[in-house]
Amino acid sequence: MLKVNIAQFFGYLLDSYDFTIITILSPFFAKLFLPLGFSFISILLSYGFTVIFRPLGSITLGILGDKIGRRDSLVISMLGISASIILTPFIPPYDKIGILSLVFFILVRIMVGIFTGGEYSNGYTFVEEWSSKQNKGISGAFVQSGFGIGSVLATLLIILAETYFGKNFFIYGWKYLFLLGSLIAIIAFWIRLDTQETPEFKEARKDKYPFKDSIKQGRKIGVLLFWFAGMMALALSFFQFTPVLLEESYGKLGEIIYAIAMIFTFPSVILFGKYYTTKLISYWGILVAILAIPLFYLLHFNNFLLDLVVSSVIGITTQAIWGSVPSLVTSAFSTIIRSTSTGLTVSLGMALGLWYTFAVSLTGDIWISSGIYLAVGGLLVFLSSKKFYILNS
């Protein structure tokens, strides 16, 4: 069981590791892969290609998971993630091949999206089916916490690499971040090869048409899609725009503030995963909606101690609830369609949640737009989780 948890922990760690590097270094990647005059937000939006193509990976690899097994599908997805991370540092810059540089960058982001989509369809399912009934919540929360740890790891390594390589960081030093990520991916790949298929999948009858039968769960999937659209606002408010705001105020010191704030989220994710109820999730959405604008307003004053505290509170209020995701979503579907339905729900819901990135990028001050749209995300979580509770009653 421990090996299964560690294998999946690495999957979500790598997803966040990649995302954090793209986010924090977005101004640099804009100069590297885009013509002069394009804003760094163009690179942030390019992450949208990753999220948009996740449903394709989730559905394709989710169907495989329901047909041939969760374990084999996860080995395939990790192999794809490894390849895409390895390819990134070898993309030629714009001044060498022109617009093809951006094209190649986007293609790699699409590749990342497809294979990380497979992580969400089969990863949650794999862990939950191996877990005992009393440990499902905490096992899922542990695996989900890998996302936060990946973000901290990427942030600290960026700081160390910039310090060690100096000016050479932007010439070749940044490439080592992806090469290290590929090493982690290869280790995760070998760990997965040493895991076994879940007994629950082995004993269940096989569904010939898991996608078709997943669609029949329309009402349940529809509610969860709105839930994930709101959850994506919670995730991006901390992982994407909080570090941007902190770096605008403090430069590289902002990255350290963000890393410290992220550390406080780990115990909250584990505790929420262990003790959550659908009602608690609903009330938590209201709490987020109430606190959203005041928190981002306080982050606007450039007071170091205040920003450290506020960033930590933003991290806890937006990330703790993610500890409930693996157990809640997988429990909503039967074994024979669990991977397909889970992947469809999670990845398509995340893609719908891209409204947050586009909305914030099209408005003026990031702090006020982040606060407003986080509040909307909190309300979506409240309304959809309340509806989900009614459906499951």
From TrEMBL:
The keyword Membrane applies. It is found in: Cell membrane. Keywords: Cell membrane, Membrane, Transmembrane, Transmembrane helix, Transport. The chain crosses the membrane at residues 36-53, 74-91, 97-117, 138-161, 173-193, 221-241, 256-273, 280-299, 305-329, 341-360, 366-383. It comes from the Archaea. The keyword Cytoplasm does not apply. Its main location: membrane. InterPro entries: MFS, MFS_dom, MFS_trans_sf, Sugar_transporter_CS. Pfam families: MFS_1. Residues 4-393 form the Major facilitator superfamily (MFS) profile domain. GO terms for molecular function: transmembrane transporter activity. Gene3D superfamilies: MFS general substrate transporter like domains. GO terms for cellular component: plasma membrane. It is a multi-pass membrane protein. PANTHER family: SHIKIMATE TRANSPORTER. This is Major facilitator superfamily (MFS) profile domain-containing protein. It comes from Acidianus manzaensis. The lineage of its organism: Archaea, Thermoproteota, Thermoprotei, Sulfolobales, Sulfolobaceae.
